[in-house]
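User: Predict the full complex structure for these chains.
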Amino acid sequence: MDQFISLLTDPVAFWNSHTLLIGQIGINGIIATSMFLVLYSGQLSLAAPGFMAIGAYVSVLMGNYWHTPGVLNTVTAALLAGVVGLLVGLPVLRLRGVFLAIATIGFVEALRLGVILNVPITGEGLGLSNTLSADPLGGINVIIVSLIVIVIVVWRLTKGRLGNAWAAIRQDELAALSQGINVARYKMIAFVISALMAGYAGALEAHLFFNVDPSDAQYGVTRAVQILTFAVLGGSGFVLGPIVGALIITLLPYIFGAAGDYINVLAGIFLIVVIVFRPQGIVGRGGLALVRPAWWPGSRVRAASTG
Amino acid sequence: MLLRLDDVTRHFGGVHAVDGVSLEVEDGSIQGLIGPNGAGKTTLVNVITGYTRFQAGRAWLQADELTGLPAYRIAALGIARTFQNIRLFKDLTAVENVLIGMHTRRRDDTLAQLATLPIFRGAQRSRVKDAYALLETVGLPTAVGTRHAATLPYGDQRRLEIARALALKPRLLILDEPAAGMNPSEKQGVRELIERLNADGLTVLLIDHDMRLVMGVCKHIAVLNFGKKIADGTPEEVSTDATVIKAYLGTGGEREVSSAPGAGGVNEETEVEQAAVTSKAAREPEKAILDVDDLTVSYGAVVAVRGVSFRVAKGEVVALIGANGAGKSTILNTLSGIIRPESGRASFDGLDLTNAKASSIVKHGLVQVPEGREILARQTVLENLELATWARRDGAATRTRIDAVLKRFPILGERRDLSAGSLSGGEQQMLAIARGLLARPRLLLLDEPSLGLAPQMVDEVFRAIEEIHKDGTTILLVEQNALRALAIADRAYVIETGRILLSGSGDDLLHNPAVRRAYLGG
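Assistant: Here is the predicted structure of the two-chain assembly.
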């Protein structure tokens, strides 16, 4: 808690002494926006860590072997993640709901256990160290600017014809078809843009730290669940929702530093409380009103009904 | 010729859902498509609109061949449809729903959106204006535009779905049971809407159970039964066709029929005038098994039931009738403990229903068969019944109980190993009632057992209800089909906007013109 006091008293010093934290928040914000996009188009995809891994490894390997400039590495890595998104999406996007979630987890784990931990060039279990400077792109400013640009782009996309089609698909695929919406195509567009964003975030993250770590918490199911939590906690109805979720989840260990190993217990309790009293997420319909659950004492209506 | 079907076929396993149907729809006409439940009407629509693949046959919309095209391409070619069970984008506003309908007519504006160019805002503004105009066309007030689709009343949702379909600027509009679950005055509104749209040059393919609606509005009608087209002609030709009457009403019904119901149009009205009886006040039974006193139920700010009192004696059949949204289902849901009342009392054989848990209410012998049946579609008939008894420990007794119930409904016995979802609507209703019987009810609450059933099936369901009553079960019946409910009820209450308007014996009310007024809304 103490370290946040300087945020008020001396913001510049706070900024300078917490660059890693702020950078991590920005990166998680971009990934959260990538998650928002797939959820907005009605797809429960958990593939983001896979695309992040592609972004991270490709950009670092390019820098280490070919000594190409960081900007080129990052852009190439993101594009490649998008291409992989297209290839993965072709078979996988026929699935819906929880089946899509499982299939995308399959992709994430196959990539991590099957490729990254088995191919010598990735450094296998040891990971990859970033022999170039850790942030060749000019530090966390790039991350923050990227986040802002991406949020604006996604927000604008949801407002146009594309966004209307996504909303229709999310609400009811069959009805969307009857309105002449090519459901498969629009789902693929959302999935690929989301993969591009996750790949970009992965590349940025690899440049923020000195080491690319192929652990579960970084590119595995644990990360996928964490990203999903951003959206559930923050709310997936508005583009800012998952970012708020990412901010809170990233900050929790710092705010409750005193909790030590119990931080995950605290985070779990916090999440349950939010889901019970605020099922639409923190950012969502109804201002800041809390929902009174049916079992709460004094709650009269137990189930809604028509007629 | 706008739409031409040639030998269209679709089988599901051994079921010949659509079996070699050829049909032509004239440009600018209103074509009717009728048939008993399970005749294949909706399957045919699904094939035409690309939701279900063709197995054989071909279809054209003017010069465009539809065969094998995906649903979104067919929609873009100009066939708009509504769905039997409304499929709106529930969390979007009414206007947003209509705007999505304009998808195919809209240029892609992704880049413009990114640049937020003001010229494109003008286009959006004119689209929103068009959307409001379409809402007006179907008779929805402007104020509805910003409301979320899910919060609209049922009739308005139906209208909104039509407005969304019109946003496609279709050449052909297919309406799949647009008047299902509506009261007669709402049906009249739908009929006027269809006629108005047709007068503006739109071709309509209308599918409905309600013969009166279809006969009144269509110049040409095709009849399906078991996937085959059995008749095709003017309303007069179709309604006097012997095959049609047999398919629709079944044989061995109690009534002698010379024409399909509704074809004559006004016979019920004359009947009511002849018997100009005023209803005696209902004689409330002295000893009641169910006693409801001044019950008030609200959903948030909306009061659904206002101070309703009534009693049901052991062995009676009591009906609650009234239009959609009158509060009938709310009363049943309150009695079975699903909803809690705001005030008032309700007791069943000594048990306070306003406080007891839903599960103990069932144990006490008050069992509800819910509206819309709520069976488990993917489980078999037998599994549905077994699941209904899973909390019981007396295995052998349960077994014989299930066997007895299957004997009572022989059609379920025949289909015990089929998945419940593959049953027809009437059979599903039988299953729902059978499941209710397994709980050994002393009082059975039936919520709209005839909902969405063809007349022939309604007969069968009501026959089953009478038999259950004969076995000594008290029945509280909620129905929109007032004539049918009154025919079997000892006593009935007419509910309107949450209040009891009238009460009396079934016979009295059946011949009471005030019932017609209350029920038909004028």
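Residues 2-218 of chain A form one domain.
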